[in-house]
Specification:
This protein is of the alpha+beta class. It has helices spanning about 50-55, 70, 75-80, 85-100, 110-115, 140-150, 245-250, 275-280, 335-340, 370-375; strands spanning about 30-35, 40-45, 50, 115-120, 125, 135, 165-170, 175, 180-185, 185-190, 200, 205, 210-215, 235-240, 245, 265-270, 275, 280-285, 305, 305-315, 320-325, 355, 380, 390, 395-405, 410-420. The longest helix is centred in the first third of the chain and has 15 residues, at about 85-100. It binds calcium ion.
Length: about 425
């Protein structure tokens, strides 16, 4: 696949610092506003945001299949409804306009001022209308660890796990943007299995290191998307912290699965990095044994190498990195997840969010939740300020970052950071 905007040789006339998450080859989409103005669609470049509403009004996007309302919008959905090929054309055109070799926009200093906003001067918004949110459970190490902790190391994976990309329907209303705090949830829990349950704030608040993908409009109800077609239905990805209250979860989850231990909040990073921008970072996935059913078979490299990290920042002190993982540790890839999700005829819509499930690598420092890092609270992690953590405390900020890197090109996701406030 030859995607023009991915050319590693491309350089921009907009200054991009070494090690920036947002070089020319990235061009992720988000929704931003500056004081006194309405939210609109933008693209990150270096430390700036390219304002697509103003860019359109100045006539620079005339040869693309888009209209003003696609960018003069508080969410990305109208733009995304134009589909994968249109989005590729748009990204290529933006790349052309930002290229150091193209004079069109570069030479009009007054217009440049109208279309470039410093990220520091902008507020980022939840960039999508998310109709439905699905959470998978697709990292083998995570599923194995949880199986060991709650069941039996000899039968850690349930019999269906290697046959089905296990998932459940989450709640989209409580997906929040990076920077928004969460309140420690309250609920029923049963700390002593010999005693009746009690009610109160969770004592076992946890993060889940995940990545999520966002879909384009799917097919009508009754149709399926194959693993081969799946790429055409995936717009892009973001970082995703799927907050969990382990004590509430542990008491409620039988027989119907996650509910109040999960649906109080999930935090997402503000920039959607297109699947197109991630194509150069594809890698082979694990050998799937036992062999999967034909509808889950796939061809080519469908996994993606993305370095991930989680840090905890106690209030007023520096952060401590508690996990380094990688998106390539997924057992099931996005194509298989989407094929499985729709194999029964379930429809997907533009802006649906599909999270990976906690991404844990094989080494202890690669575990993607405090549940695993503290091994269910049996050991603690030392913070740089001298305090210790088994789970997340009030006023802690949890920060996740991620980037793919190859041939001198770094495609970053920025970060998702949320502070935990005491229970209301
Ligand atoms: Ca999850």
């Amino acid at each position: 696949m030859n995607i023009k905007a991915n050319n590693p040789e491309l350089k921009s006339w907009v200054e991009v610092a070494e090690g920036s998450d947002f070089p020319m080859q990235n061009l992720p989409f988000g929704v931003f506003s500056v004081e006194g103005d309405t939210p609109r669609v933008g693209v990150a470049i270096g430390e700036y945001i390219l304002d697509l509403k103003n860019l359109f009004e100045l006539g620079y996007l005339e040869d693309t299949p888009f209209e003003l309302a696609d960018f003069d919008a508080a969410v990305l959905n109208p733009m995304m409804l134009k589909g994968k090929l249109s989005m590729r054309k748009l990204r290529d055109r933006i790349s052309e306009l930002l290229s150091v070799e193209n004079e069109e926009l570069q030479k009009n200093k007054e217009e440049v001022k109208q279309v470039l906003v410093r990220q520091d001067d902008a507020k980022m918004h939840l960039p999508l209308y998310i109709g439905d949110y699905t959470d998978f459970y697709s990292s083998e190490q995570h599923a194995y660890n949880v199986g060991c902790l709650f069941r039996d190391p000899n039968n850690a994976l349930l019999p269906n796990w290697k046959h089905i990309p296990v998932g459940y329907h989450g709640r989209s209303s409580s997906i929040i943007i990076s920077g928004e705090p969460i309140y420690r949830p309250k609920g029923q829990k049963r700390p002593n299995p010999e005693q009746p349950p009690v009610f109160g704030p969770t004592n076992l608040l946890d993060f889940e290191l995940e990545m999520a993908f966002v879909t384009f409009q799917g097919k009508p109800l009754g149709n399926s998307i194959t693993t081969e077609e799946a790429d055409d239905y995936i717009f892009g990805m973001c970082l995703f912290n799927d907050w969990s209250a382990r004590d509430i979860q542990g008491w409620e989850y039988v027989p119907l699965g996650p509910f109040l231990g999960k649906n109080f909040a999930s935090s997402m990073s503000p920039w959607i990095v297109t699947l197109d921008a991630l194509e150069p970072f594809r890698v082979p996935g694990p050998v799937q044994e036992p062999k999967v059913l034909p509808y889950l078979e796939y061809e080519g490299d469908k996994h993606i190498q993305i370095n991930l990290e989680v840090a905890i920042q106690p209030e007023g002190t520096e952060e401590t990195v508690v996990s380094n993982s990688n998106y390539q540790y997924m057992y099931w890839n996005m194509n298989q997840q989407l094929a499985h999700h729709t194999v029964n005829g379930c429809n997907i819509n533009c802006g649906d969010m599909m999270a990976s499930g906690t991404i844990s690598g094989p080494e202890e420092h690669e575990y993607g939740s405090m549940l695993e890092i503290s091994w269910k609270g049996t050991k603690s992690v030392k913070m740089k300020d001298g305090t210790e953590r088994k789970f997340i405390l009030d006023n802690d900020t949890v920060i996740m970052r991620g980037y793919a890197e190859k041939n001198g090109v770094r495609i970053g996701f920025g970060e998702v950071a949320s502070k935990v406030l005491p229970a209301k």
